[in-house]
Design brief:
alpha/beta; five-stranded mixed sheet; Rossmann fold
Length: about 200
């Protein structure tokens, strides 16, 4: 009768277990958004806005934060991640910002069910989402506004640079939140100027 060698299996298990114990902690981040406006009783026909689709560069469409460390070099930061997919995070924050900027509770994401045709549809193509730790957050977006009734769409472009006001990743994420809020204001101003 031969005995199976168990020590190599036990040793491999203990090595794997000790490797997990020393893993660095992962920090999760989310973009700040403006609070939704208060419901008003005098708004009998509130504006309905459908936001989406929203696209962004594949390079940053990942769970980890992607940070520029040179003109042609980026670092993928495994210990700093988005709390949800970045595309969803951007859409959620932008919808909340637009609701606040336009004074309506009726801003819906493209994946949400909506009864009837929206008054306005907004699609956003994020062209740049660049992060420089301790320096700046850059967002560039092309957006298109379509009104109900088939009027010609209105297209605009926003390029926002926000200074990072501290050294950590939380300050970098906060700068992206401020940049997104400024893009929202530009979209809302275009909607108001072109009824």
């Amino acid at each position: 009768m031969t005995r199976s060698p168990r020590w190599p299996l036990v040793a491999a298990f203990l090595i794997a277990l000790s490797g997990c114990a020393g893993s660095p902690a992962i920090d999760y981040y989310t973009l700040d958004a403006l609070p939704y406006p208060e419901a008003r009783g005098d708004d009998s026909a509130p504006l309905t806005v459908l936001l989406g689709p929203l696209s962004l560069p594949e390079m940053v469409d990942r769970p980890q934060l992607v940070v520029r460390s040179g003109d042609n070099r980026v670092e993928i930061v495994d210990t700093s991640r988005w709390a949800q997919p970045l595309k969803s995070e951007l859409a959620r924050a932008l919808a909340a910002n637009l609701a606040r900027d336009l004074g309506t509770l009726r801003v819906f994401l493209a994946e949400q069910s909506l009864h009837g045709e929206p008054d306005i549809s907004v699609s956003v193509d994020v062209l740049r989402f660049e992060s420089r730790l301790g320096v700046e957050a850059v967002m560039e977006a092309r957006w298109t506004i379509r009104r109900k009734g088939g009027a010609a769409p209105l297209t605009g472009r926003s390029l926002i640079r926000e200074t990072v006001q501290g050294k950590g990743y939380e300050f970098l994420v906060a700068a992206h939140g401020r940049a997104l809020a400024r893009i929202s204001r530009e979209i809302a101003e275009a909607i108001r100027r072109n009824p």
